[in-house]
């Protein structure tokens, strides 16, 4: 048996250990942190139906922002489709994932294979294109899965993702090993390349502080709620009333605002304009209103904000103010966007084999 074949065999022997290290040191702690964050989130929020609908989206949101490793970033890339109806969240997730992969110099169409073959994909194709293509196909093809907003569901999905990448690397190595058309020198070079992939460089110790990560995740959940709280209201004064008068406005529509608060095209308030028509004396104006997320949620946000290294998110209020006044406005939306960006930057891996403590 040649030296190159021996080295490829050695890699095959080590692959199950690498898989276990990714599961033990990253995936399992990540899901436990998510489970704890959800439990605390559920204790604070009351809207069960809306909450359950959001949980699947919030896990992908967390994985896209609090990546920590190319493994979680690649997993999030395969799951962003669950955000199809959430414009703001989808923008945040895609922007953060793009920044992560841009840092790794990953082409858009190679993101799903970056965990298994990141950093060596192009060179490996030059040496064994058939084997690389065959192995990578397993990562880019997928069947519909049963989705539920539970820790068990996410744990099995991440486990499947790691298993699929394990199979990809295994099949590549075995295919190269058994391909007589590949020279011994090229087999040895491919063994070197596979040894540099993220999958074959798992963390040797725990890289997730579960309690602290759960606090960051829970804070993200609330930042998502804050970003979702703004609504664009189209209205005219009440019949016989005047702009700014005592009559109750007539609202024509009230819709969620898809733009981020920092966007240049974020809606601006405009007053109704008097046009003097008999049946429609005013041209509608528009204003931004904010849902009241409740004093209990605001208190929890302040607590988490301080625990994760930020100042209080909301201004201090006395008991009466907490009950009567919700200070949420565009300043809080901008602050939510800033917190998300900071958490993402802190958790973003700087290179393909970097696994950050999160």
Task: Describe the 3D structure.
With 358 residues, the chain is mainly alpha-helical. It has two domains: 3-212, no CATH class; 234-284, no CATH class. The chain contains twelve helices and five strands. The protein has helices at 3-44, 48-65, 70-77, 87-103, 114-117, 121-140, 151-178, 184-194, 210-227, 295-307, 319-324, 330-347, and strands spanning 230-236, 250-256, 273-274, 282-283, 285-290. Helix 1 (3-44) packs across helix 9 (210-227) and helix 3 (70-77) crosses helix 4. The two termini are 44 Å apart. The mean pLDDT is 87.
How many helices? The count is 12
Radius of gyration: 25 Å
Overall tally of domains: 2
What percent strand? 5-15%
Strand order of the largest sheet: 2-1-5
Distance between the termini: 44 Å
Descriptive key words:
5 strands, 3-stranded antiparallel β-sheet, single chain, mainly alpha, 358 residues, 12 helices
Can you lay out the helices and strands and say which pair or pack?
Blueprint: H1 3-44, H2 48-65, H3 70-77, H4 87-103, H5 114-117, H6 121-140, H7 151-178, H8 184-194, H9 210-227, E1 230-236, E2 250-256, E3 273-274, E4 282-283, E5 285-290, H10 295-307, H11 319-324, H12 330-347
Antiparallel strand pairs: 1-2, 1-5, 3-4
Helix pairs in contact: 1-7, 1-8, 1-9, 2-3, 2-4, 3-4, 6-7, 6-8, 7-8, 9-10, 9-12
Summarize it.
The chain folds into 2 domains: 210 residues, no CATH class; 51 residues, no CATH class. Helices cover 57% and strands 7% of the residues.
